[in-house]
Amino acid sequence: MDTMQSLISRVSVPPRLLGDPAPSGADFDEIMAAAMSTPDHGALTPWRFITIEGEARAKLGDVFVDALKKRDPGADEAAIEKERNRPMRSPMIVVAVAKIDDTVANVPPIEQAVATGIAAYNVIVAAQAKGFGGIMLTGKNAQDSNVKAALGLDETDEIVSFVYLGTPIKQVSDKRRPEASQFLSEWTG
Ligand SMILES: Cc1cc2nc3c(=O)[nH]c(=O)nc-3n(C[C@H](O)[C@H](O)[C@H](O)COP(=O)(O)O)c2cc1C
Questions:
Q1: In angstroms, what is the span from residue 135 Cα to ligand 1's centroid?
Q2: pLDDT in tens, 74-113
Q3: For a Cys staple, 96 with which of 29, 60, 120, 168, CB 3.0–4.6 Å?
Q4: How many domains does the chain have?
Q5: For ligand 1, is residue 135 a contact (CB within 6 Å)?
Q6: Closest protein CA for atom 29 of ligand 1
Q7: Would 185 be classed as within a structural domain?
């Protein structure tokens, strides 16, 4: 598939449709190389990526459960089990983190977060180009200080997304996409 077709046909694959194998070895190295080719104002390299696989996914589930119980001490068993199982749905999670430096005068935090988001998107696109699938998800865990601490992050770090990766166990049907013209205008001064 050529680059244009690959970009136009990109679809996210829900975690429950992501099976083994996750990208590894040279495939994973190339996917991460694509992430490093992200536009980056000031060459700050604000992004960090944390891979979570195998047994560590269950430990992340425990972290999500602890965080939920702190956010909502009255959470019911169903909600707790949902958090416990959340990371188990796909073989690999890559946490995309923006290490925000708010002291850089000409590169405000939003630009650093945007660059990290683009880097995460490059992971998704590169994974798809190699026959893998993925999806960017956030949810309350991405904003949770306890989750950040458990991952060894600072409070000022932003979890831009949990990128779930694996091999699609079935093809995701083509999606109807918005007409670009609806979002396009020309400014002529
Ligand atoms: C930064 C970011 C965070 C996201 N977080 C969520 C999320 O928590 N839950 C969700 O259902 N979709 C989330 N999405 C949207 C999905 O990644 C995906 O785009 C959506 O399911 C539509 O699928 P598509 O990408 O094939 O159009 C997020 C997207 C981005 C860019």
A1: 7
A2: 999 999 999 999 999 999 999 999 999 999 999 999 999 9
A3: 120
A4: 1
A5: yes
A6: 136
A7: no
